[in-house]
């Protein structure tokens, strides 16, 4: 998207990437855009849009991720400074917002507990039927020209416990910054 998120009168280029990066490029000169800000999310970004959504006078960037989460980055300051010895007082609007969020969180926690209890009861009954749920998998296997390697990216709308990679040819697995996986190797049985 293109949107004036910096408030300088010139629209910036808002980029959402498959690797979860949100980037803001500014056109300071007539030549190439300059990266001004970036922010990393944990999953690929499906769409990105700039606008005024939450509060008048404060622009935001909204990004929708692969699993359906909607993330917002705002220009509204989140920290307020008080003088020496002064207590920071929250406005009535902020107090009501915090109160409503706490109520919503409590309701969601209660709903999760109820559903978990319902699942436990149904899974222990004699008529319980177990089935494997169908998941939509977002996968990419791309060549990195710089180091002649391939990147395998897998995204699922639930936690990934294990990924098994099997190959007839020997493989070298390279670690990347965003990887939190523990790699273990097994030798192949020639038969």
Commentary on this structure:
This is BBS7 protein. One of its GO terms (biological process) is cilium assembly. The structure is a single chain. The chain is α+β, with helices and mostly antiparallel strands and 191 residues long. It is built from 1 helix and 9 strands. It has a domain of 73 residues. A hairpin with an 8-residue loop joins strand 1 and strand 2.
Write the layout of secondary structure elements.
Layout (H helix, E strand, L loop, with lengths): L1 E2 L8 E5 L4 E6 L7 E7 L4 E11 L2 E8 L4 E5 L17 H33 L12 E8 L4 E8 L35
Shape: flat
The N- to C-terminal Cα distance equals 54 Å
- SS-derived structural category: alpha+beta
Largest sheet: 4 strands, antiparallel
Element order: H for helix, E for strand = EEEEEEEHEE
Percent of residues in helices:
10-25%
Order of strands across the biggest sheet?
1-2-3-4
